[in-house]
Amino acid sequence: MRVLIAFDKFKDSMSAMMACDIASGAVMSSPGRPDVEACPLADGGEGFAAILTRAALGAEASAEVVGPQGGDRVAPYGIVDLGRVPDRAKAILGKSASGAGTIAVIEMAAASGLALLPMELRDPMRSSSFGTGQVMRDAAAHGVRAILLGVGGSATHDLGLGALAALGLTFCDSEGFMLDPLVPADWPRVATIGGALPDGFPPILIACDVDNPLLGPRGALAVYGPQKGLKPKDAPMLEEEGSRIAALLCAAFSRPANLVSAPGAGAAGGIAFGLMAGAGATLLPGFELVSSWLNIEERLAKADVVITGEGRFDDSSLQGKGPGAIARRALDLGKTVHVFAGQVGLTRDVHGLVTHAITPAGMPLKDALANAPGFLFSSVKRAFSSG
Q1: Which of 291, 294, 325, 379 has its CA at 20 to 30 Å from residue 361's CA atom?
Q2: What are the structural domains of the chain?
Q3: Burial status of residue 183 (CB atoms within 10 A of its CB: 0-12, 13-18, 19 or more)
Q4: For residue range 81-118, what is the model confidence (pLDDT) as tens digits?
Q5: Are 105 and 58 in contact (CB under 8 A)?
Q6: What gap in Å lies between CA 231 and CA 123, rounded to an integer?
Q7: 8 A C-beta contact, residue 92 and residue 288
C-alpha cells in the first residue's frame, strides 16, 4: 500500500513539515509498514519558501530585517534555478519565469508574520510590512529574474505601505516630513506619496488564493482584522483611512481607482493591493501554483491512500485550496482519503471522506496547541492500526 501524506500547517502548533513527519512515523509503525511519501503543503504562509525551495533543489538565503513591530530578525528565503521548476508551474509564473535565471521564493510570514508576535502584542494598528520589503530588496540584489511572494500568515493591515517604503516609496505629511516608520496608526498624517522602486527591480508575483477585495464587508479589515488583534474601536478609522490612502496610491501611480475591488486585493492586510498599485505586482493562483510546483497530480495518481489536514478543517477548506483541494482531487481519483485536524467543522458529509478530530472534546485551546503533535501521532496510528 502506498500512502501519500500531504499536510498543511497546524497554526500556532505544527509546521506542515512537522505534521507530515509525525504522520509518516505513525503510519510506518502500523502493521504492514506501508510505503509512505510525504509532501508538505504551503498556502503562502509559514513554510512556503522552504517547501518550494527544497522541492526544486534551490539554495537557502536570508536577510536581516525589521520585524512587524520593530526589532531585528533574520528572515530566510530561497533562490531557485528556473530550470528546476516544473513546466506547469513555470506556465503559471508567466513570462517573468521564462528562459534561464533564478527566482526568489519569499514568504511574508518570515518577516512580517503574526506568529512572530505574542498574543498580547498583536495589533495591526502598530504593525508594518517593512521587513517583507527588505527581504524583496535583498533578493533583487542577487540578480533574480522575478520574486515569488507568499502572503499568508501576516500580522499586518498596512496595505503593503511598509514594504513599499522599504522598496523606495515615500509617505509624507502636509509639511513634507517623511513618516518613517509608517504604521496604520499614523495614516491620518499621510498627505503625499512619492518615490519609486529601484531601476530594473524584478517583477513581483504574489501567490494568493483569497478573493477578498480591499474594502467593505468582505474586505481585508472586516474578514481578517479581528484575528490579527484589531480592536473594534479602531476599525472605523482604519477602514476610512485605508480607502483614502488607497486612492492616493492609485493616483500616484496612475492605477485605476477600482483596483481596490479586484479579487485578492485584500490579501494579507492589503499588501496585494499595495504591491499591485505601487509596484505593478501580479496575483497568481496560489494552490494551483504550489500543486504544479510539487507535482501533486502525479503523486496522487500513484497513491492508494491519501492523508491530509490542517489546524481546522471546515467548509471553507473545501473551497479550492490546500488540504480541501487535495482531498477532493484524491476522491475524484477513487483514493481512500483521511483528514486529520485539530478541529473538524464540516456542516455536510463528503462521500468517501474520513475525518478525524485529533483534539479531545472540551480541551482548552492552549493545551490543544501544546499537545497537538502527540494527538496527531496517536490519531494516525489508531486509524491505520485498526484497518
Answers
A1: 325
A2: 2-40+312-385 (3.40.50.10350), 48-287 (3.90.1510.10)
A3: buried
A4: 999 999 999 999 999 888 889 999 999 999 999 999 99
A5: yes
A6: 8
A7: yes
